[in-house]
């Protein structure tokens, strides 16, 4: 296990995040308006009203609410009521994530609109507001280098008071993001994605990461600012994905030493499976033991103290581990154990 601190990139301030309309987080305010229900930063029950124009969107009509899309749109609106609600909702999430140990908070507005100019305006607004509230630096997350640049420009304009930002992410298909990282002296997540396809083996992950690290060195981006993401894919799709990631972590750590960070969207591993918490806890523990010292995760759900103290002799942990390292074909034993009620606490 790497002795270095574990750096948490909190992942929740993201316009893809969804609540089901039928779930407990959606209800009605005192005026009978459909709203997202939450506790504000003072612990008071609060409401984020869902605007009427949002109700015409496909995602809403399918029974889902992209709550951070609502919050950012509301914060940018001309209505003082909606502005206040949007800002309060975002503030609440910033406080929640900082209070449980986030070192960076990931900001992503990609799904707010297909229009690039609206995306730019949204990222500018969000970074500007974030900078007045947060204690930790932002992680500017986008599939568009232009949006990443806009976010960093705005953060620099505010004075970068929270410290050096993060970029999420650069890859072989968009190496130019490293130029932005160099210019703004930012930390940067570099993924193991290939030029034209995702890696299919641990070796491909290591080779792609090595190429990205070489490009970082050419730009004088220090190891301490590099966060390698070997890419976590769901084991419900392919039972080798857990081991592929873990073996890539070991290989990258061996080749590049202790100064570099190794990270990833660690909870991706459990997508599509039941009892996700025990899967995630077990996988994060395995990842830390393999050499991971950072994670893009929800620190409210994935509590590091609990994860570090996972008892590997427990039956539920053994079942999860066997599945994660490819010893449970098609996840059959784990799913049967779930059906038998062995994961009632999850």
Please provide a written account of the structure:
The protein is an alpha/beta fold. Helices cover 42% and strands 16% of the residues. It contains twelve helices and 13 strands. The strands form three sheets. The chain has an eight-stranded parallel sheet with strand order 12-11-10-9-8-7-1-13, with helices on one face. The longest helix is centred in the first third of the chain and has 20 residues, at 80-99. The protein is globular and about 55 Å long.
β-strand number: 13
What's the N-to-C terminus distance?
Answer: 26 Å
- Strand neighbour order, sheet with most strands: 12-11-10-9-8-7-1-13
- H/E order of the elements? EEEEEHEHHEHEHEHEHEHEHEHHH
Mean pLDDT: 96
User: What coarse outline follows from CA principal-axis ratios?
Assistant: globular
Q: What value does the Rg take, in angstroms?
A: 20 Å
Helix tally equals 12
Structural class: alpha/beta
Classify the beta-strand content into a percent band.
15-25%
Provide the helix percentage.
40-55%
Low-confidence stretches: none
Largest sheet: 8 strands, parallel
């Amino acid at each position: 296990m790497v002795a270095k601190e574990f750096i948490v990139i909190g992942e929740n301030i993201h316009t893809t995040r969804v609540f089901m309309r039928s779930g407990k987080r959606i209800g009605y305010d005192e005026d009978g308006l459909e709203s997202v229900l939450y506790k504000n930063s003072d612990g008071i029950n609060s409401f984020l009203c869902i605007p009427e124009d949002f109700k015409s969107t496909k995602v809403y009509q399918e029974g889902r609410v992209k709550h951070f899309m609502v919050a950012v749109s509301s914060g940018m609106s001309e209505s003082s009521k909606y502005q206040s609600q949007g800002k309060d909702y975002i503030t609440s999430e910033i406080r929640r994530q900082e209070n449980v140990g986030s070192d960076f908070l990931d900001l992503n507005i990609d799904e707010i609109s297909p229009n690039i100019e609206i995306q730019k305006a949204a990222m500018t607004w969000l970074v500007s507001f974030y900078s007045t509230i947060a204690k930790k630096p932002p992680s500017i997350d986008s599939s568009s280098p232009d949006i990443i640049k806009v976010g960093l420009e705005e953060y620099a304009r505010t004075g970068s008071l929270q410290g050096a930002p993060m970029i999420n992410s650069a890859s072989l298909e968009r190496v130019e993001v490293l130029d932005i990282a160099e210019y703004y002296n930012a930390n940067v997540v570099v993924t193991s994605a290939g030029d034209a396809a995702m890696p299919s083996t641990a070796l491909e992950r290591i080779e792609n990461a090595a190429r990205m690290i070489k490009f970082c060195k050419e730009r004088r981006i220090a190891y301490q600012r590099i966060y390698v993401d070997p890419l976590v894919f769901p084991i419900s799709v392919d039972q080798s994905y857990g081991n592929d990631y873990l073996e890539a972590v070991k290989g990258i750590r061996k080749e590049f030493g202790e100064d570099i960070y190794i990270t990833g969207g660690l909870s991706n591993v459990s997508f599509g499976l039941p009892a996700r918490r025990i899967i995630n806890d077990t996988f994060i523990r395995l990842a830390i033991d393999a050499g991971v010292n950072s994670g893009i995760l929800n620190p409210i759900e994935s509590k590091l103290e609990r994860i570090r103290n996972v008892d590997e002799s427990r039956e539920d942990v053994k079942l999860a581990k066997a599945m994660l390292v490819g010893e449970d074909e098609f996840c059959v034993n784990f799913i049967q154990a779930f059906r038998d009620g062995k994961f009632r606490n999850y």
